[in-house]
Amino acid sequence: MPIGMLIPRTKSKRIVYGLLKHCNTVFVESCFSTSCVWTSRKKQSQYGMVDTERYSSLVKAVVSSRVSSQTPESLEDEDNKLYGPVVKSSFHKHMPLVPKNVYPLLKAEKTMLSVEYDHGNPARWSLPKGPERSGMPSVTRILQQTMSPEQLFYLERWKRRMIAELGEEGFKAYTSNLFKQGKLFHSALENALAPSESEETECTEDTTGYLESIQHVLEDINEVRAIESAVQHQHLNYVGIVDCVARYRGTLCAIDWKTSEKSKPFLHNTYDNPIQVAAYVGALNSDDNYSYQIKNGLIVVAYKDGSPAHPHFLDFEKVTKYWDKWLLRLELYKK
Length: 335
Description:
Blueprint: H1 3-6, H2 9-38, H3 52-64, H4 72-83, H5 139-145, H6 149-193, H7 205-213, H8 215-218, E1 221-233, E2 238-248, E3 251-260, H9 273-286, E4 296-303, E5 310-314, H10 316-334
Parallel strand pairs: 3-4
Antiparallel strand pairs: 1-2, 2-3, 4-5
């Protein structure tokens, strides 16, 4: 009797399907088993042995992150392993927000009326020497000695990378050349601002680009009253040399000329330079060698490639703000 007559139709379909499935499995196994004889066994990838669950969170964090995972702390750890620890200043550990002894930026005894401009030679006062200078630090020294840990970190990091790239002697030559370029640039500026007094300075490759960079700024400067002239705060006891005192677009300013290989289009790119200018303004206002007072400042960043310099004007409000920062740095230095 036919099998289909003894088994119900639905059940027979299940049995046939099961038999076919079994036959296919046997056939496939036999094929794979015989294929091992014909071909060599495929090498297993090492990536298949990686614990994917263990590293899944790391892969997810890296793939999903839109910003760099590096921070000043992680960069510092990395540099410490490569170059050793960075020596940091302890001055800013408990730095107050306002100075304990607030001293005015302007001198009450001095007139704020604009003194008639003398068309003679600009002032060039020299720094005091001997007992007069004893124990009187410069603005530059005070700022260097009271740098924040972050500033020291990035400065040291830059220095170590430059040494790694150029070597000790190469780095010394590089910094020496930067100093030389700055000195030549200031000499050329003196000749441009006071040609009747200054010795003729020949333009070199080191200065041509910088002078070209500041041409549009020089067009807005007149009434030069001081060039490379010493200033002394007679109450706070510090000294400095202001690059230039002149009118910029009609406003009397303490002007600081800077050179840079990197573009500095914003004031915050100039780091401590605004504090430096505020210190010069306060010292000049206190110094009896000057018959006038100033309330504004100007930082001009010149570029060697001749691209237009960035002038950063500091009005009285900004100068006052940075004057308070200067008083803090001065207190930290005296500690």
